[in-house]
Structure formats: structure tokens, C-alpha cells
Amino acid sequence: xxxxxxxxxxxxxxxxxxxxxxxxxxxxxxxxxxxxxxxxxxxx
Length: 44
What we know:
Elements: H1 2-8, E1 9-24, E2 31-43
Antiparallel strand pairs: 1-2
């Protein structure tokens, strides 16, 4: 599907906000971050 997207359209994502989320990663114990993104798609 990536190849189709690359040929027929484009997509751009911008990070709007990030916040520390409660809890920790079960695998490494690291911090968890919630990220809000805004995306745009257009047909070429």
C-alpha cells in the first residue's frame, strides 16, 4: 500500500502536542508519551 500511496498521493503529519502518559513500557520500563498529530492528505 505504501507504493500506491507514493505514486498517487502524499501525506504530511505534524506533531501538535505531546504529554507524558501514566504508566511505563512493559518491555523496557521507559516512560510513555501520548502524541497528538494532525495529518493532511492530497492527491497528486
